[in-house]
Write a structure and sequence with these properties.
Elements lengths: L5 E6 L5 E7 L2 E8 L12 H23 L8 E7 L3 H18 L3 E5 H7 L15 E6 L4 E6 L5 E6 L5 H11 L7 H8 L22 H17 L3 H4 L1 H27 L3 E5 L6 H8 L7 E3 L10 H13 L17
Parallel strand pairs: 1-4, 4-5, 6-9, 9-10
Antiparallel strand pairs: 1-2, 2-3, 6-7, 7-8
Helix pairs in contact: 1-2, 3-10, 4-6, 4-8, 5-8, 8-9
């Protein structure tokens, strides 16, 4: 239809190469190439990630355009993840986006990765209700844990953040202590369904304000496992499900305690979650349970929880409307302020 804006979104902040085509706020395609090579190393290896992005970027973009049923000339602008993330990975996506924008003579849009996770809630999706401004968003991933006050698509303020480790990191490192393969967070979620979440007690941090801390929790889990294994070498295997359930319960309690405090302090009862850990089933249930307390809660589709280009494209749509374009001098940044 005439007058509709078509945005190509490109995401390459970590180990997923993704491209999406957005028409206004409707996703026409969202293609992601994952990198399984990191599993054998127990975590993402930056150099291997950037090399894989170089191999994947062209076929992924071509596939997204083909699946969307458009021609490349119909694209109105190209949005890419500028940061934060792994610099080598970001450079691949940024360089490709810059070259394509230059060759097509199309506007270039630089997107903040964490803001994009939040704006994924505005993708048109089967009449799913979208939050209205202002709202609070708990962004939880392997690298970030934040509470963000979202006043508009372009005005967001971090009002709480982790002072050490992120929630996703706490999940993955706890899983490693249990001998689970990387990435361990989804496995903890899976095994937690089979365990008793009250079986083990772990220490929770006492941090003032809205900030988070997970390093003490990791130490508590480590000491519990270490001390029990001394008496029973089979302790982990015999208690795996209960340990997963107890770890998950503690992490989610820490997250929910802070977002509840943020609601009380701000008076804002519209609350969303975003980021990779927002795929966690118990976190989703915990947030949904707050609807009975007068909250309005917003939970993303699972495909928009992990890193994806659809969220980059929808962020690009907002920036396109504000004519927030960048030139060819733009560069990727491993750290990017809000």
């Amino acid at each position: 239809m005439a007058g509709q804006t078509i945005i190509l979104g490109i995401e390459s902040s970590c180990d997923d190469t993704s491209a999406a085509i957005l028409r206004d706020f409707e996703i026409l395609s969202n293609v992601t190439a994952n990198q399984s090579i990191h599993e054998q190393y127990g975590g993402v290896v930056p150099e291997l990630a950037s090399r894989s992005h170089q191999e994947n970027i062209v076929p992924v973009v071509e596939s997204a355009i083909k699946k969307a049923g458009i021609s490349i000339s119909e694209i109105d602008a190209i949005a890419f993840t500028q940061g934060p993330g792994l610099l080598g990975s970001l450079v691949v996506g940024a360089s490709f986006a810059k070259a394509l924008a230059l060759s097509l003579n199309k506007p270039l849009i630089a997107v903040h990765h964490m803001k994009a996770h939040i704006l994924a809630h505005f993708i048109d999706d089967d009449n799913k209700q979208k939050p209205s401004f202002p709202f609070l968003c708990l962004t939880v991933s392997g690298g970030h844990t934040q509470i963000v006050k979202v006043e508009s698509a372009s005005k967001m303020t971090v009002i709480g953040k982790t002072i050490d480790d992120a929630a996703g990191e706490a999940f993955d490192k706890s899983a490693k202590m249990l001998g689970l393969p990387y990435p361990g967070g989804p496995l903890i979620d899976k095994y937690a369904k089979l365990g008793d979440a009250t079986k083990f007690k772990f220490s929770k941090p006492r941090i003032d304000g809205l900030d988070f801390s997970f390093s003490g929790l990791k130490t508590s889990i480590l000491y519990t496992i270490r001390d029990q294994v001394k008496f029973n070498p089979e302790f982990i295997e015999e208690n795996k499900f209960d340990l997963c359930a107890s770890i998950q319960r503690t992490i989610i309690q820490i997250l929910m305690d802070k977002i509840e405090k943020a609601v009380k302090e701000t008076g804002i009862k519209q609350v969303a979650i975003a980021g990779g850990v927002s795929a966690n089933s118990d976190l989703r249930k915990a947030l949904e349970s707050k609807n009975k307390n007068g909250w309005e809660t917003y939970i993303p589709k699972l495909e928009y929880c992990t890193d994806n280009a659809a969220m980059i494209a929808v962020s690009g749509k907002f920036l396109f409307e504000e004519k927030q374009f960048v030139n060819q001098m733009i560069s990727a940044k491993a750290r990017l302020d809000w």
